[in-house]
Design goal:
Blueprint: E1 3-7, H1 11-22, H2 27-45, H3 51-81, E2 87-92, E3 95-100, E4 103-107, E5 114-118, E6 121-125, E7 132-135, H4 136-139, H5 143-153
Antiparallel strand pairs: 1-2, 2-3, 3-4, 5-6, 6-7
């Protein structure tokens, strides 16, 4: 079996990756608790608060659901700008083949590190130093099949 993908990651791909990193850790819980606490604070103290404190409360309310994603989007745009060449990844019984411009590399399955499966995204980490972001935009309907292939169906995969 062979899976082949040629892509250039976009701002949206990096945004999905960065947001999935944040919201797959304990920091997501902190963000949610903080936002709920700000809602409760606003409901209970809005009427008797000074204009400055009202501004602080509104800022606290929009910090995680608005400001943080906006900052992450801007960072994602910079990451996407730094990608100048398309990447071609091929997964077959020999391993993971990586081609960027004129550089070819083969990571054999016995040396392959891991693949992280998150909603809307697969993150292929072949050597522990590099990661390849494969969103549903790139994988289409092959995400589950590729993940299953990498993690057991192909020869020697971990």
């Amino acid at each position: 079996m062979e899976f082949k993908f040629k892509f250039k990651n976009t701002t949206g791909d990096f945004f999905v990756f960065n947001m999935s990193n944040i919201y797959s850790q304990w920091t997501a819980l902190v963000n949610i608790i903080f936002t709920v606490a700000m809602i409760l604070l606003i409901v209970s103290r809005w009427g008797d608060s000074h204009i400055f404190f009202k501004g602080v409360m509104v800022f606290g309310l929009i910090l995680f659901p608005v400001i943080q994603p906006l900052c992450i989007y801007l960072r994602s745009a910079k990451q996407a700008e730094s990608i100048t060449e398309s990447t071609e990844l091929t997964f077959d019984d020999g391993g993971m083949h990586i081609r960027v411009k004129d550089h070819d590399q083969l990571i054999k399955w016995k040396d392959y590190k891991t693949t992280i499966n998150r909603p809307f995204i697969l993150i292929s980490i072949p050597d522990g130093k590099h990661a390849y972001i494969l969103t549903d935009r790139i994988l289409k309907d092959k995400r589950k099949a590729l993940y299953k292939y990498i993690n057991g169906e192909c020869c020697g995969a971990k």
